[in-house]
Design goal:
Length: 422
Amino acid sequence: MDRLNASLGKILPEQRLFLRSDDTTRVLRLRPLTQLAGISGITLAFGWTLFASSALMIDAVGADRSGISGTQAGFEQRLHELQAERDARATEALAAQARFATALDQVSQMQTQLLGSEEKRREMEAGLGAIRSTLTETLAKREAQQTAAADGAGPDRSEEVTAALDILAEELRQTADQRALARQEADEARLAAQELTVERDQILARNDEILTQLEDAVTVSVAPLDDVFRAVGMNPDKVLETIREGYSGQGGPLTPLSYSTRGNAALSQNETKARQIIVTLDQMNTYRIAIEKLPLAMPVQQAFRYTSGFGRRWGRMHQGIDMAGPVGTPIHATGDGVVTVASRQGAYGNLIKIEHELGTETRYGHLSRIGVKVGQRVSQGELIGAMGNTGRSTGPHLHYEVRMNGRAVDPMSFIKAAENVQ
């Protein structure tokens, strides 16, 4: 023990603590072995605290991701329900509009019939007036003839005139009955048209409410996707333009254009709002296609510890992040792409480079094993190698880089963006 204390004394010299009271003074000697034991205990306690904190943090992150995934699934289910209800309301509105148009046509036909009956009645009244005048003149002539000739030589036509009057009276009665029936049917048609108008207005109001809810929902959904690309330093407008260039196929037979002569402001407003929702949904779908092409997954899915971040380190630029773990820890591709390098590369040690779309590239260094070949196409989450300690490395870990158009960017921005996507 004395020899060991003497050897350690060069590094940890003996320390003395003076404990003074009112009447005595005590001296405590801290030998090198005692100091070494204390330092070792403190180091072990601090290391265990870091390890436990990292484990708890990883568990918390996993739980948060599960909760966010459930929330996203519920939101998408609600969005599908709103879309289905919107389509049903639109169908009801079109049916109500068709019924309203049919009722208007019936009212128009009844009004035409009523006008015809009224014209016929007037003609009959005019004919009856002419017949009455003729009858009056005939009766006057007959009386004059009876007065002039006592023998009654002129023919008696009173029965013929009476029969003609009876026929005219019956025709007038029938015409009046037809006119009253036509008026009744016209009134009933107008009432039905009013009821259809009220029903259509209610359907349009409900349809507008559903469209407003859909518009708010898709707008809220697009905002986080837009933030994802801004967070990783990409221009969302250029990303959308690039994706649309690759998904721009069109075709199919064309049908002749048809034009409606019945305008409706409410339907036009709803159609405009529905078109805007479709545009926003297309934008959201294009964002999701672009996100699937970005390396947003975690390369290490088992327990690990961050040992170095992106930025300057020891006076030099560290162009990635380091994730430490046991040798052989599985390493996964963070996005779909093509392997461009799969070999030993100087200070990187065993290195894998994967080229993704939208100008992004990921690098995985210091591997103990490479499980892919150059030119191989890999998918997000696919096993590509194992963690190691090759190249310029002080211990087993993964050096993970993300590059955009050849420029190194902070991989943590992509990892945090993935949480917003989920």
